[in-house]
Amino acid sequence: MTHPTDIPRDLGTVALPATLHTALWLAKQGLPVLPLREGKGPMGNCPDCRNNACGGRPNMKTPGLCTCAAPCHAWAAATTDPHTLTSPAWAGAWRQAAAVAYHPGGAGVTVVDLDNADAVAWARRTLPSTRTVATTRGEHWIYLGAMTSPNAVRPGVDIKSAMSYARWLGTGTGTTTALPDVVRALAVKEPAAVRSAARPVTAAAPVGGGQCPHRSPVYLERGIAMAEQRITAAPDGIHKAVYRMFLAVLSAHGRCGCLTDAHIKRLFTAAQGRGESLRHCEDAWSNAVAALGM
């Protein structure tokens, strides 16, 4: 891998700001980048995009839906295109930039942001080792694989991946390893699980009474496990994937009375691990029940 100092510091006859120089190197490595202003925040939206008058990007699943040429909309402005990064529309932002950030999810990685010594100590006890980058107060642990980006998953710990940005602080040390289940599980908020258990009526198993097709308990267990796996592995369209799996489980196991609230909780946990809210889970379950006439 090259280093930023290996890249010429000018583009034609125009000298590059140090931040843009670094950004072009990162973009070449495949990291979508954006400028940060003083205080580590993204550049403010341009006049045409203030108050999301243009329709915005932050509520979208992928960047690029706004046609604004300026580096607006925080993480959604991140790009690997050198022509965009060096365009006149971005020139003012780079002159003002105090640092460079990148979109981890766009690069297919997840950053576990450990904000203090206690959080770092917890990670060293709990998480698999991976590439580590020192920060002002703690460390960034970088894993290969993208996920949702919840904040405050535990004291001093944020997750930065899809629809988020992380400050570039260097290449760090160690080898980047695969995103483990223990990190994905951090996205499943405990309060949501409690609410789900406290309101079973909104997602109860059908009463049953039909003929039981299960030759053994293993048949039901295999069906639930397969649904969990397919929800977790769905590449996109998670709302549809969750509904389809709920529909499949109910179709195969919902009429005989063998399906329990514990099985439903497992499916909800898998869906919430992919960023689904409790309400979306309940709506998908109710819609599947109604579609099957249960």
Helices and strands: which structural class?
alpha+beta
Helix content: 25-40%
Count of individual helical segments: 10
How far apart are the termini? 58 Å
Number of strands: 10
Please state the CA-atom Rg, rounded to the nearest Å: 23 Å
Largest sheet: 5 strands, mixed
Strand content bin: 5-15%
The overall pLDDT average reads: 80
N-to-C series of helices and strands:
EEHEHHEEHEEEEEHHHHHH
Q: Estimate the global geometry from the Cα principal axes.
A: elongated
Multimeric status of the protein: single chain
Enumerate the spans where pLDDT stays under 50 for 5 or more consecutive residues.
1-13, 58-64, 190-201
Identify the notable features of this structure and list them briefly:
294 residues; alpha+beta; five-stranded mixed beta sheet; three-stranded antiparallel beta sheet; 36% helix; 12% strand
Write the layout of secondary structure elements.
Layout: E1 10-11, E2 14-15, H1 18-28, E3 33-36, H2 82-85, H3 88-96, E4 99-102, E5 109-114, H4 117-126, E6 131-134, E7 139-144, E8 157-160, E9 166-167, E10 177-178, H5 181-184, H6 190-198, H7 217-233, H8 238-253, H9 261-273, H10 278-291
Helix pairs in contact: 7-8, 7-9, 8-10
Polypeptide structure, described:
This protein has 294 residues and is of the alpha+beta class. Helices cover 36% and strands 12% of the residues. It is built from ten helices and ten strands. A hairpin with a 4-residue loop joins strand 6 and strand 7. The longest helix is centred in the last third of the chain and has 17 residues. The N terminus is likely disordered.
